[in-house]
Prior knowledge:
The chain is of the alpha+beta class. It has helices at about 30-40, 120-130, and strands at about 1-5, 25, 45-55, 65-75, 85-90, 90-95, 100-105, 110-115. It has a 4-stranded mixed beta sheet, covered by helices on one side. A 4-stranded antiparallel beta sheet has the order 5-6-7-8, with helices on one face. It is extended, with a radius of gyration of 18 Å.
Amino acid sequence: METTHCTVADADTLPEDAPDTVVSCIAKDAGIVHELLHGIQPSDLLRVTGTLIQARTPGEPARLTVDVFEVLDTALVPVLREMVIDRFGDYCVIFDADTDAVPVFTAHGTWVGLADNPDAIATLIDIHERVTGGEA
C-alpha cells in the first residue's frame, strides 16, 4: 500500500482544450465514494491511500483501489466559463454565462424546472420538495 499526493493544475489556468486526467477508482467504504462524488472539486489537494493496479493491456487506464481519502486543501472557487454544473444537495444546476436562467434537475436526472435567475434556485427546489414530499 502506498500513499500518493495528487494535485491537478488549477482549472482556471488550463487552456480550454486541456485533457483531463482520469483514474478509475473503486472503494469499499461508502463514505469515501460519497466524498469522491460530492465533496471535491477540480484542483483540490488530495491524499489518497490505496493500491494502484497497472492496466493489463496498453491503452487501458490503471485502476486505484482507495482505502483512505483525505482533502488536504480545497481549491478556490473556479471562475465561470461558458457552462458550469453545480450541486445543491440532491439537485444539480447548470449555470450558463450567456443567460440568467438556470435549469434545475435532481441528482438522478429528473427535470425540476427553470429558475429565472440564480437567486430563484432555492425557491424552485423548495417548491419541488413540497410537491414531491422531498423525493429528489
